[in-house]
Design brief:
Blueprint: H1 2-16, E1 38-39, E2 46-47, E3 55-59, H2 60-66, E4 81-86, E5 89-94, E6 97-98, E7 110-114, E8 117-118, E9 132-139, H3 143-146, E10 153-159, E11 167-175, E12 179-191, E13 194-205, E14 210-211, E15 222-235, E16 238-251, E17 258-259, E18 265-266, E19 277-278, H4 283-286, E20 288-289, E21 298-313, E22 317-338, E23 342-363, E24 369-388, H5 392-396, E25 400-426, E26 429-452, H6 455-469, E27 475-476, E28 479-504, E29 508-519, E30 522-523, H7 539-542, E31 543-544, E32 547-561, E33 564-576, E34 579-584, E35 590-595, E36 598-613, E37 616-631, E38 655-666, E39 672-682, E40 685-689, E41 694-698, E42 701-711, E43 717-724, E44 732-736, E45 742-745, E46 750-758
Parallel strand pairs: 7-10, 14-20
Antiparallel strand pairs: 1-2, 3-9, 4-5, 5-6, 7-8, 9-10, 11-12, 11-46, 12-13, 13-15, 15-16, 16-21, 17-45, 18-19, 21-22, 22-23, 23-24, 24-25, 25-26, 26-28, 27-28, 28-29, 29-32, 30-31, 32-33, 33-36, 34-35, 36-37, 37-38, 38-39, 39-42, 40-41, 42-43, 43-46, 44-45
Length: 759
């Protein structure tokens, strides 16, 4: 009833006031004369305004204007999206649906794609945005066409394709935090509709935290070099692109935005089952690094891949092949802060490989019955070691100098067959149905081990274990096995979608969908009793279940007039077996994943634009999201009376409002000046803390961005001044108590200048 009242109230407001539309994409290469934009959210080219799903699209020019240089900044531009650092890798949350397991065996709840290629490891999603055609963000489960791990939605970053012409450009920016961002592109036409395109990028930025000792060395938080080479075009009935990319990422990584809990909370109130009290401090105080690192934080990671996208038009049908191979090499040294006070050395090395292949057949173009069918194969294999030094290793075993997790191979394999068809009941009224069958397999062979400095340490550990447990652990050289990590399991799932849409003559699109989403299950550290050394777990303790979500959604995309657009959607989710994680110390330090029972999500999203004249554009947006646990008792056997029922899911503020205004000052033959301001008001949100059986609260806040841009005639060059987060409000990306106690913070106020030229 409360949701219905909210829908009615906000709908009334929206109809009499300008609201930010989902067609927020700036006009770019794929634009059409009406100002609409072509997207590929349905795996075929359609107009954004005619695509019957909740979708936001931002062109490359729109990304540049908004200062969005990597995926994290999409949070400011896309409704109900939060992409934040969460320990070892970024975490995507859409409408409150998210995943906290960023390890080699975990899967995100929202799929991140590069040119339609699924990127398995969350750590690989923070590449630079450069020479981008557009970014599409699909909200809600997209399993029929995009497969597993799309419970929350999809983010698809699409690079610009080569064309048969000469183009070149250079863009550069400099700002506070010693931020540098430089991109260059050249496209050369080869004739016959083909071209070759090369693009490069360099990004650098200092950490968010402030140092009490000004003489202390400051390594950059981010120092990334990227390059991309593409060949392709359209010749005859064949349209294709072959693309290779490479990036090298160095810097302090996630520890460049990590501070102690006392910067935000009264730690004396951090008691079991009590939410800690938030303390308001200045930006400088919140970002102050109160414990000087004893060891260097530094990463040197390399990622590269090749992909191919080929479509051949046979006339009655169009056949598409999309395939890729990718590899990531990681080499990190870290200073872990244990319990918010103790420096601990650590290192991480890893080798990750993935390949994927998809074959789609589209049919019926121009007829009443049309659609596509296809098959998909994905394979990932990784080898890694995460090694923690003292004092943690000494706590686990006296005399140990390393507590490590050598894992490999860890294998993930997915096979799927899918189809989605649409029947045009009338030219304006369409019925769509889709189904996908997925077979998922995961396995791992690894161990938890201890390293010792000498043979005497090994002998002492073996003797202690023999006395305590009646068994001697196997040791090779100076390394002893604590337990083996052995797991292997298969899951099968069929997901589906049914939808109706009606193109109201002279007004726009109305649509309604019912769809299901699914994310594969997984396993924790350890092994089934009797399967290896120190194996004592039951299958129920080792494995956790897949996530499942059923979505009901209805929406509209109206072009009320040439000056006013209005989009709205209302949705309800039934969400079961949420996968949640926590850091535990017993029986050994580890990350434990479990299923959180049930949750429900109800929501409303409103966006529109009002453009009363050529020189003014007003935007306003509002989202209401009630994402809450409905059945979650973390420890039903040992603490059956404690539950999270009724509490909000992570990164799911109930209310978010946005407002923006852009004004253009025409300068005649001298070009133009654009002045823009955008503000975002968010109510409070929460982050679960299973260690303390509580939640961390981020109070409500505002963040405002502003730009002033001069553009020369014919867009030959531009110069822009920008400031983001004028209020300098520091918000929480992630927080935890226990062994990994601390807060990961989001960006403070940033400002600078940006310029670019086209040739």
């Amino acid at each position: 009833m409360k949701l219905i009242k909210t829908v009615c109230m906000v709908s009334a407001i929206a109809l009499c006031a300008p609201v930010h539309a989902q067609e927020t994409a700036q006009q770019g290469a794929d634009s059409v004369p009406t100002g609409d934009i072509v997207v590929t959210a349905t795996r075929q080219s359609t107009l954004l305004s005619k695509t019957p799903i909740t979708l936001s699209a931002i062109t490359g020019d729109g990304l540049k204007d908004a200062g969005i240089t990597d995926a994290r900044a999409l949070t400011t531009a896309v409704p109900n999206l939060a992409l934040t650092d969460s320990g070892d890798a970024p975490r995507i949350s859409i409408r409150g649906v998210t995943s906290t397991d960023t390890t080699e065996k975990g899967d995100p709840s929202a799929a991140f794609l590069l040119d339609g290629i699924y990127i398995a490891r969350p750590a690989d999603t923070l590449g630079s945005f450069y020479d981008v055609e557009r970014v599409e963000v699909l909200r809600g489960p997209q399993g029929t066409l995009y497969g597993r791990n799309t419970t929350a939605g999809v983010i698809n970053v699409i690079a610009k394709a080569p064309v048969d012409a000469f183009h070149a450009s250079v863009d550069a920016s400099y700002g506070n935090l010693d931020s540098v961002d430089v991109s260059g592109m050249v496209n050369v036409g080869l004739g016959n509709g083909l071209g070759i395109r090369a693009a490069v990028n360099y990004q650098r930025q200092n950490p968010y935290y402030t140092l009490s000792n000004s003489d202390q060395r400051t390594d950059p938080y981010r120092d990334t070099q990227s390059a991309r080479l593409s060949f392709g075009g359209e010749t005859g009935n064949l349209k294709f692109v072959i693309r290779g990319d490479y990036s090298r990422t160095r810097g302090t990584g996630v520890n460049g935005n990590f501070v102690t809990l006392d910067r935000f909370y009264d730690v004396s109130t951090l008691t079991l089952k009590n939410d800690p009290v938030y303390i308001g401090r200045s930006s400088d105080e919140q970002r102050a690094l109160t414990v000087e690192p004893a060891y260097r934080n530094w990463r040197d990671n390399k990622a590269y891949g090749i992909m191919g996208d080929f479509t051949y038009d046979f006339g009655p049908v169009q056949l598409t092949y999309l395939g890729s191979y990718r590899k990531t090499e990681r080499d990190d040294t870290r200073n872990l802060l244990l319990f918010g006070a103790l420096n601990n050395s650590a290192f991480f090395t890893g080798d990750f490989k993935q390949d994927s292949h998809e074959l789609r057949l589209a049919f019926g173009q121009g007829s009443r019955f049309h659609g596509q069918v296809g098959g998909y194969y994905f394979h990932e294999k990784s080898f890694l070691e995460y090694n923690l030094g003292n004092p943690l290793s000494g706590i686990v075993a006296p005399g140990a100098i390393g507590f490590a997790f050598p894992q490999g191979p860890t294998v993930s394999r997915s096979k799927a067959a899918f189809g989605q068809v649409t029947f045009d009941i009338t030219p304006d009224f369409h019925l769509t149905g889709g189904v996908r069958y997925t077979n998922d397999f995961k396995s791992r062979n690894g161990a938890t081990v201890l390293d010792f400095a000498d043979a005497a340490g090994v002998a002492a550990y073996q003797a202690a274990q023999l006395e305590a447990n009646g068994a001697t652990p196997p040791c090779t050289g100076l390394r002893c096995t604590v337990n083996e990590n052995i797991a292997k399991k298969t899951w099968n799932k069929t997901i589906w979608k049914v939808g109706l849409d009606y193109d109201v003559p002279g007004l726009g699109l109305i649509y309604a969908n019912v769809s299901t989403g699914y994310k594969a299950g997984g396993f924790n550290d350890g092994c089934i009793a009797g399967s290896g050394f120190n194996c004592f777990l039951t299958p129920e303790a080792l494995y956790y279940n897949p996530e499942n979500l059923k979505s009901y959604e209805a929406g509209l995309k109206f072009r009320v007039s040439s000056a006013f657009r209005l989009n709205a959607s209302v949705f309800h989710y039934d969400y079961t077996d949420l996968q949640v994680s926590q850091g535990v110390l017993k029986p050994i330090p580890a990350t434990l994943i479990s299923n959180a029972g049930k949750a429900k999500v109800d929501g409303l999203e409103l966006e529109a634009t009002l453009q009363p004249g050529d020189n003014d554009k007003f935007e306003l947006g509002y989202t209401y999201t009630n994402a809450r646990y409905t059945d979650f008792t973390p420890e039903p056997e040992t603490d059956p009376t404690f539950n999270y029922n009724g509490l909000l899911l992570d990164h799911a503020p109930k209310h978010v409002a946005t407002a923006a205004w852009t004004h253009t000052f025409p300068l005649g033959d001298a070009g133009k000046v654009d002045v823009g301001v955008r503000s975002r008001l968010s109510s409070e949100y929460f982050i679960i803390d299973l260690n303390n059986k509580s939640q961390f609260r981020q109070p409500g806040f505002t963040k405002t961005d502003a730009t002033i841009t001069y553009t020369a005639p014919n867009d030959r060059y531009y110069v822009q001044g920008f400031v983001k987060n004028i209020e300098d409000n520091i918000t929480i990306a992630h927080a935890a108590s226990g062994v990994g106690a601390g807060v990961f913070i989001e960006a403070p106020r940033t400002y600078g200048v940006r310029a670019g030229v086209k040739f």
